[in-house]
Amino acid sequence: MAEPADELGIEEYYRSFSAGATLYYAGAPADELYLIRDGRVRLLKRYRGLERSMGLFASGDLVGEEALIPGSHRTATAQAIEPVTALVVDGDTFRSLVRHRPEVGEGVMQQLVVRLRRAEEQIENFLLPDPTIRVLNTLLHAVEASPDGPLQLSPLELSTRTALELDRVKAVVRQLQDRGYLTVGDQTITIGDASALRQLHDLLTLKEDVRHGLSCR
User: Fold this and answer.
1) For a tag on the chain, would you pick the N or C end, based on fewer CB atoms within 10 A?
2) Rounded Cα–Cα distance for residues 147 and 175 (Å)
3) Are 29 and 101 in a shared domain?
4) Are 39 and 112 in the same domain?
5) DSSP alpha helices (H): ranges in the chain?
6) How far is CA 100 from CA 64, 91, 150, 204, in A?
7) Angle at Cα 149 formed by Cα 143 and Cα 154, nearest 5°?
8) How many distinct helices (H) and strands (E) make up the chain?
9) How crowded is the C-beta side of 167, counted as CA atoms within 13 Å?
10) What is the predicted pLDDT for the residue at 115?
11) What is the pLDDT of residues 168-188, one digit of tens each?
């Protein structure tokens, strides 16, 4: 049984990864999990010969939680997209850490709830054929989760959550900015009038429904 991380000295569990480094590969045994302190990590999964981004994680986020299940394997590849420092521990050590620091376990539970909501959002987006509606759908979800201040959304994260290519996402965001629906900062998006964005979403959805209805006749 692993000793509690606090007794062993938690600093010795931290590892550093350079930008572009792979933390683990899809299909490999899940022996360790990673609690990110600095930097960003994305999860990649190959689908029909193409590598798709399945999630983007930053400081305070947990990745590789499959390691909590004995005998499990990685479901995706984790890659550092910038220099990353992370707490890297096996399942037993992480459980010991949670017992001694309950706030860590509470934070993980909150993350899992957010991931479940993001998964539902991605399923919605897969069912939406129009790229603009996908982006609007994700932006509106983000506004509901963080109604005050700018949204902490990078183009890469928006690409992941909409299941669209990065260039397509950038084009849609640029069109929305040109029409005054939002402004784009450094890794942030500010929406001045969420109700106007909702009206645009509903209008485009109605047009798509009408188009689909006519094509089925």
Assistant:
1) C
2) 22
3) yes
4) yes
5) 5-8, 91-100, 102-126, 131-145, 155-162, 166-178, 194-215
6) 21, 14, 35, 51
7) 70
8) 7, 10
9) 0
10) 78
11) 999 999 999 999 999 888 778
Q: Which amino acid would we find at residue 205?
A: T
> Would strands 32-38 and 62-63 be described as parallel, antiparallel, or unpaired?
antiparallel
Distance CA 204, CA 212 (A): 12
Are 108 and 22 in a shared domain? Answer: yes
- 61 CB neighbour count, 10 Å cutoff: 19
What's at 67, amino acid-wise? A
106-123: pLDDT as tens digits: 888 887 887 778 778 777
The reply to whether 123 falls in a domain is no
Could you give the 3-state DSSP secondary structure of residue 11?
helix
The amino acid at residue 31 is D
C-beta of residue 121 within 8 angstroms of C-beta of residue 141: yes
Bridge partners, 44 (sequence order): 53, 77
Instruction: Assign 78 to helix, strand or coil.
Output: strand
For residues 147-182, one letter each, b for 16 or more C-beta atoms within 10 angstroms of the residue's C-beta and e for the rest, the string is: eeeebebbebbbbbbbbbeeeebeebbeebeeeebb
Query: What CATH number does the domain containing 132 carry?
Result: 1.10.10.10
Among residues 152, 197, 195, the alpha carbon closest in space to that of 60 is found at 152
CB 62 within 8 A of CB 34: yes
Domain count, the chain: 2
